[in-house]
């Protein structure tokens, strides 16, 4: 059984955090979604790290079933355990204790808990799940932590957890790259959501991985108005290559990226 760290997320009294958050009417559950390869995982991980660095208990849920992200975001040795999201979704009903048993805590960042698929797994590794388990997982997480960030898969048509996360979250970051393929992707997928109780008000449109040649005029033409612009950071790309996304971004040219993550955290979570 997973040995939860003293003072770790599930033993900590989260009430003050929750009160703070309700007072400011900010989000508890944030879904990060967008076109394939647009930077969803980068943004979700860096937002989670930002909150954890500020001593806020945060659960990061990595939905990707086709390319499990646990082995990509940090060295296996940095995690306290090696549990899978698949074990949670495989149950008939999801309970608090099932979630607690299948979370991974980070050895150096004690405010951070990660749930995701393990290396080598795919959606057929476990019995099929449906919207029941996905909804129950999100409902229970709300009782377990004050902040929950869901790194959604792009393909919502056959990714139940990501689709449910988009419906049930308090806020959605809708990421898009400044290119026609990325925009075409979203206009193809958005009709899938329109038939459901998709709440357009809770969405923030975000331009992601913006390069210096994508001048803001040109970007507005292509994307329309966006609330946030997340710049390209070569240092971040290097962190991704070395599978070490929880390292600090120390270089000067990452400043724009760091500032935008701070801005998003303030706007969405109020912290
Ligand atoms: N802000 C950024 N700065 C630098 N590189 C980025 C940024 N956002 C995305 N990337 C690049 O795009 C790739 C895909 O990012 P990722 O977060 O895995 O996308 P997604 O989760 O949307 O599929 C990364 O490997 C990285 O090289
Ligand atoms: Mg991803």
Question: Describe it for me?
Answer:
This protein has helices at 15-23, 40-53, 70-73, 85-89, 96-101, 131-144, 160-168, 180-194, 216-223, 234-241, 255-269, and strands spanning 29-34, 58-62, 104-105, 112-116, 147-151, 171-176, 203-210, 228-231. With 271 residues, it is α/β, with parallel strands linked by helices. The protein has a single domain (24-269), classed as 3-Layer(aba) Sandwich (Rossmann fold). It binds adenosine-5'-diphosphate and magnesium ion (MG).
Task: Supply the key terms.
271 residues, 11 helices, 8 strands, 39% helix, disordered N terminus, binds adenosine-5'-diphosphate, binds magnesium ion
What is shown here, in short?
The protein has 271 residues and is α/β, with parallel strands linked by helices.
Helix and strand topology:
Blueprint: H1 15-23, E1 29-34, H2 40-53, E2 58-62, H3 70-73, H4 85-89, H5 96-101, E3 104-105, E4 112-116, H6 131-144, E5 147-151, H7 160-168, E6 171-176, H8 180-194, E7 203-210, H9 216-223, E8 228-231, H10 234-241, H11 255-269
Parallel strand pairs: 1-5, 1-6, 2-4, 2-5, 6-7, 7-8
Antiparallel strand pairs: 3-4
- Which CATH class applies here? Alpha Beta
Task: Report the C-alpha radius of gyration, rounded.
Answer: 18 Å
- How large a portion of the residues is in β-strands, by DSSP E? 15-25%
How many domain modules? Answer: 1
State the strand order across the main sheet: 3-4-2-5-1-6-7-8
The CATH architecture would be: 3-Layer(aba) Sandwich
| Uncertain regions spanning at least 5 consecutive residues | 1-23
Shape category: globular
Average pLDDT value?
A: 90
The main β sheet shows up as: 8 strands, mixed
Number of strands: 8
**By CATH's scheme, which homologous superfamily applies?**
P-loop containing nucleotide triphosphate hydrolases
For the record, give the distance between the C-alpha atoms at the N and C termini, rounded to a whole number: 33 Å
**Secondary-structure-derived class:** alpha/beta
Report the order of strands and helices: HEHEHHHEEHEHEHEHEHH
List ligands, each type once: adenosine-5'-diphosphate, magnesium ion
């Amino acid at each position: 059984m997973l040995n939860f760290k003293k003072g770790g997320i599930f033993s900590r009294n989260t009430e003050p955090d929750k009160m703070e958050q309700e007072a400011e009417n900010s989000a508890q559950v944030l879904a990060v979604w967008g076109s394939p390869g647009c930077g969803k995982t980068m943004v979700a991980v860096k937002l989670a790290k930002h909150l954890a660095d500020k001593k806020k208990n945060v659960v990061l849920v990595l939905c990707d079933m086709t390319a499990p992200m646990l082995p990509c975001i940090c060295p296996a040795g940095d995690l306290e355990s090696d549990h899978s999201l698949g074990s949670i979704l495989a149950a008939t009903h999801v309970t608090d204790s099932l979630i607690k048993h299948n979370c991974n805590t980070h050895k150096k960042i004690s405010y951070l808990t990660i749930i995701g698929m393990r290396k080598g797994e795919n959606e057929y590794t476990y019995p099929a799940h449906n919207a029941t388990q996905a909804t129950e997982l999100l409902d229970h997480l709300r009782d377990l932590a004050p902040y929950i960030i869901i790194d959604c898969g792009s393909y919502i048509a056959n990714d139940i957890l990501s689709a449910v996360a988009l419906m049930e979250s308090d806020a959605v970051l809708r990421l898009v790259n400044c290119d026609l393929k990325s925009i075409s992707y979203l206009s193809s997928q958005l009709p899938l959501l329109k038939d459901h109780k998709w709440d357009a008000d809770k969405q923030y449109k975000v331009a992601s991985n913006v390069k210096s040649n994508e001048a803001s005029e040109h970007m507005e033409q292509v994307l329309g108005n966006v609330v946030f612009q997340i710049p390209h950071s070569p240092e971040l790309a290097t962190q991704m290559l070395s599978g070490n996304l929880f390292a600090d971004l120390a270089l000067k040219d990452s400043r724009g990226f760091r500032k935008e993550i701070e801005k998003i955290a303030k706007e969405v979570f109020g912290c």
